[in-house]
TrEMBL record:
GO terms for molecular function: ATP binding; triphosphoribosyl-dephospho-CoA synthase activity. Keywords: ATP-binding, Nucleotide-binding, Transferase. This is Triphosphoribosyl-dephospho-CoA synthase. GO terms for biological process: prosthetic group biosynthetic process.
């Protein structure tokens, strides 16, 4: 297998492992639809099959790209929109992974580009994603006018609270993944050798800092800050590595179902964490 084709395989693996992780509070798992009434595990598998087809294409696009990184975003977006259309066909209009397409097309475009230059590493992917998206927050959020019709979740959250969400995350080079998700995943995996437990642990770490506009749009800013606080408390008692930590995760899951909370943005960043982990180990 060509290494450039391996990039897409690792991306698909990362997404499948994320959705298979259990018990994720409020999120779709093989055993629960979480706080979702319109999606379940089977729908995510169907949706991920669509994404997997696009991942090979975007990896090759990055590998063959000859321009400047700061001009890569428009063609990446065009490729992503084609896959997004197909995703909506397969899911009958349910938005399973639109944000994930944006995130992974950036990472795979960057990864293909770096692979060609023999500079592929998590740190360099972080830097390349930042270069590709330089100025995106100001350009796409700073110019929004109040009263504009059909605002996205991210636009709405920025207007109300000044929170930049996934745009800010990618423009800064995925700091939540690099500084929390990846180190905490590695720490847990070193101690447990268990992908499921380590993924769950990394998710909680990500939730303690991620600007998750999914939570804010569904539940409001106060709930969002409370989720971060609770996730931080779970980490402080050891997360999945201790019995009190696991009990708190189970309790959080119960609360999220009652309150209809879904940390979907954090789930996307967990998929990104797994992808960078596999890149480091296998490419």
């Amino acid at each position: 297998m060509k290494k450039v084709d391996l990039l897409g395989e690792l991306a698909t693996r990362s997404i499948l492992l994320e959705v298979s992780t259990h018990p994720k509070p409020g999120l779709v798992t093989p055993f629960s639809p979480g706080a979702h009434r319109d999606m379940d595990f089977t729908l995510f598998l169907k949706s991920t099959a669509v994404l997997s087809q696009g991942f090979k294409e975007v990896s090759h696009f990055g590998y063959n790209y000859k321009g400047d990184l700061n001009k890569m975003l428009p063609p990446l977006r065009k490729l992503g929109l084609d896959v997004e259309d197909r995703m909506f066909q397969v899911t009958n209009g349910v938005n399973t992974q639109k944000g994930l397409i944006f995130l992974f097309y950036l990472m795979l475009g960057a990864s293909g580009y770096l692979l060609n230059k023999r500079r592929l590493s998590p740190k360099n992917i972080s830097s390349a994603v930042s270069k590709i998206t330089a100025g995106i927050t100001d350009k796409e959020l700073g110019t929004i006018k109040k009263g504009k019709k059909s605002l996205s979740k991210g636009e709405n959250t920025f207007l109300k609270h000044g929170i930049t969400g996934i745009r800010g995350e990618v423009e800064k080079g995925l700091p939540t993944v690099m500084e929390l998700g990846l180190p905490e995943f590695k720490k847990a995996y070193e101690k447990t050798q268990d992908l499921n437990k380590s993924s769950l642990h990394a998710l909680i770490a990500i939730m303690s800092k991620a600007e998750d506009t999914n939570i804010i749009s569904r539940n409001g800013i106060d709930v969002y800050y409370n989720v971060q606080k609770k996730a931080d408390e779970i980490l402080k008692v050891g997360g999945v590595l201790t019995t009190p930590g696991m009990m708190k995760i189970i309790d959080m899951g119960t609360d999220f179902l009652k309150m209809n909370i879904s940390p979907g943005g954090s789930a996307d960043l967990l998929s990104a964490t797994l992808f960078l982990y596999f890149i480091e180990r296998e490419v």
